[in-house]
């Protein structure tokens, strides 16, 4: 969360309702906010199982995810954006699918697919183009890598390479690691509180360099086939 003060309590309440009856913790990473996000997180922690962590300076969404996953104590992770556009009600179905897919023994990432995006026209078009280019170059077989809703094992994430903006390339990184990726249709809602921390042009500028970096990572790694030696 970066400057998402108005969204803290509504989002935390929704997560708690969605996961009622399940043991869970909510880890909120305050990414150098200069509004009342910290105060609202402190308030939320008095009512819900919230652990609030704070970056002294803004480090970006990927750093926030790394911080949260590293601090987590449960074996399964569900990520979602702090702006309220992801619907926590989708988490139980995604987690159920993740566990079913994991029964085959392979590492699994379940990625949300925002079928009906509630964003501006230019944002939807730019995202559609970016996803098409990314799928063609990286072969990640994921229609919506930018969706914040994802479910995966904590142990899997901790083995992936870390870099700024890595959150947009989690499917490709999981496949590189030898895992599996499946997509699940999820709800998407318009932003009704706060304002976006991203612009279309700045995301485009960094995505080109990031994509080249991920292509390099894919080509510079060979997965060993390990077997017991008698």
Quickly describe the structure.
The protein has 230 residues and is α/β, with parallel strands linked by helices. It has helices at 5-18, 37-45, 61-71, 91-102, 121-138, 154-157, 170-177, 200-219; strands at 26-31, 50-55, 76-79, 108-114, 150-153, 180-186. The chain contains eight helices and six strands.
Tell me what the structure shows.
It is a single chain. This protein is α/β, with parallel strands linked by helices and 230 residues long. It has helices at 5-18, 37-45, 61-71, 91-102, 121-138, 154-157, 170-177, 200-219, and strands spanning 26-31, 50-55, 76-79, 108-114, 150-153, 180-186. A 4-stranded mixed β-sheet has the order 3-5-4-6. A two-stranded parallel ribbon has the order 1-2. β1 (26-31), α2 (37-45) and β2 form a beta-alpha-beta unit. The longest helix has 20 residues, at 200-219. It is globular, with a radius of gyration of 18 Å. The N and C termini lie far apart (51 Å). The mean pLDDT is 90.
Features:
alpha/beta, 8 helices, 230 residues, two-stranded parallel ribbon, four-stranded mixed beta sheet
Structural category: alpha/beta
Count of helical regions: 8
Sheet-strand content, in percent, reads 5-15%
Output the strand order for the largest sheet.
Answer: 3-5-4-6
Poorly predicted ranges: none
Principal-axis shape: globular
How far apart the termini lie comes to: 51 Å
Q: How many beta-strand elements?
A: 6
What share of the residues lie within helices? 40-55%
Report the mean per-residue pLDDT as an integer.
Answer: 90
Output the radius of gyration.
18 Å
- Taken in chain order, the helices and strands follow as HEHEHEHEHEHHEH
Largest sheet: 4 strands, mixed
């Amino acid at each position: 969360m970066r400057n998402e003060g108005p969204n803290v309590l509504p989002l935390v309440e929704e997560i708690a309702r969605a996961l009622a009856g399940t043991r869970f913790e909510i880890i909120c990473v305050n990414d150098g906010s200069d509004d009342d996000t910290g105060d609202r997180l402190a308030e939320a922690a008095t009512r819900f199982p919230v652990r609030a962590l704070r970056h002294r300076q803004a480090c970006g969404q990927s750093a926030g995810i790394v911080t949260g996953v590293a601090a987590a104590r449960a074996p399964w992770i569900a990520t979602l954006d702090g702006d309220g556009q992801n619907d926590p009600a989708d988490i139980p179905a995604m987690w159920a699918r993740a566990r079913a897919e994991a029964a085959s023994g392979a590492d699994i990432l379940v990625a949300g697919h925002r079928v009906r995006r509630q964003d501006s026209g230019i944002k939807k078009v730019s995202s559609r183009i970016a996803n098409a280019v990314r799928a063609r170059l990286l072969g990640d077989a994921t229609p919506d890598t930018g969706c914040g809703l994802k479910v995966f094992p904590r142990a899997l994430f901790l083995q992936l390479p870390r870099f700024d903006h890595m959150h947009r390339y989690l499917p490709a990184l999981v496949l590189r690691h030898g895992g599996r990726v499946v997509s699940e249709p999820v709800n998407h809602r318009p932003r009704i509180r706060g304002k976006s921390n991203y612009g279309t042009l700045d995301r485009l500028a960094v995505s080109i360099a990031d994509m080249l970096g991920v292509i390099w990572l894919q080509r510079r790694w060979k997965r060993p086939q390990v077997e017991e030696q008698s």
